[in-house]
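Example record

The entry below shows one chain as it appears in the dataset: sequence first, then structure tokens.
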Amino acid sequence: MKIKTTFYHDGLYHIDHSFTVPLDHDEPQGDTISVFAREVTQAGNDNKPWLVFFQGGPGFPSPRPNGNNGWLKRALQDYRVLLLDQRGTGNSSVINHQTLAHLTPEQQAQYLSYFRADSIVKDAEYIRQCFGVDKWSILGQSFGGFCSLSYLSLFPDSLERSFITGGVPSLTRHSDDVYQATFKRTLDKNQAFFKQFPNAQGLCQQIAAHLSTNEEYLPNGQRFTVEQFQQIGINFGVSDTFLPTYYLLESALIVVNGKPQLRYEFLNEMLMQQSFQTNPIYAILHESIYCQGFASDWSAHRVRQQYPQFNYDPQQPKREFYFTGEMVFPWMFEQYKNLQPLQQAAEILAKKSDWGNLYNLEVLKQNQVPLSCAVYADDMFVEMDLSRETLALIPNSQAWITNEYEHNGIRADGEHILDKLINMGHCVYHCN
């Protein structure tokens, strides 16, 4: 373990920690990777208990704080915080098209199979032991909540408390069930958007028809397609995105020499929104976060066929246009420039059926760790009904179900949300 104090800002100390951990924790003498975590503490208050933050994703690093604000401000009242860059992200042996280029597709798939929630949790447990900490608490946002339940399954005796925001997954359901729910939620969000901005439907139809009959290219040289355009609907799962989306649409097309074309500003924004170009774990492992003993077999792509309104038909340009949401499709590995080198590996992982279990139901049914969760009633990414189904199986759990926030509640109003959960956790801890 290497430790280095990096900087002091806004009354907070930031300390870097880097660890060498096994790629496969079941083979501790095998290959290793590096895992990075940043400790954040209030000045003069470094003896508080630990709270480990698990970021959403999969495939995104922990946040880089810009000051003592948001959920971090509330957390630091009670804890010192460890911001974990999950393996493959941030400063933790990063995975992208560059770092995987030297491997065959089979080797890429094998390597990537060690980057799910169970391995992330084992990294955290390794770090806990390195620190000599008896127990610590955890906070998981979105996919970080999936990691939290894996932690409660694998190492419950290492945990003091667990907090989850917008990330209570099903413990047993097939990924098809998940996408059945999320396609319905995405349909609802589309209808709400087009109801608020009636003119947007015509603008979308114009853009889609233009892309169907003209070649447009993003600044990285990648051809921009209707399918890619539809994917900006993922923004509808977070707050305050309807109006910015409309502003994008109304200024997308211009006329040059008598011919319509997409403005460079619009195309540049479309590229900036393609986060899997820089964070491919999100695309390549997204469906596997639900897999336990079965293959996803491109679950979202198959379920999509049951919702034909999401399949744009250039022969019917006046048919209602719909955006998609947080789904991954096989064509992405044909179209997206930085995913193309991973296409064969993605196919291998989509067909992989021997994924291990991510949760231990028997352990969770005996849970003694206070678990406090914010469940968002209108969450487009994590279905409320599936979250409630899970929490009904776990004793010592409480859910705050609210429609005040979208999936990004912890970013929008994190100080309030975490305060609510911490107080709930106190109640579970002291009232049982």
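Notes for this example: The first helix runs from residue 70 to 78. The chain has two domains: 2-171+359-431, 175-351.
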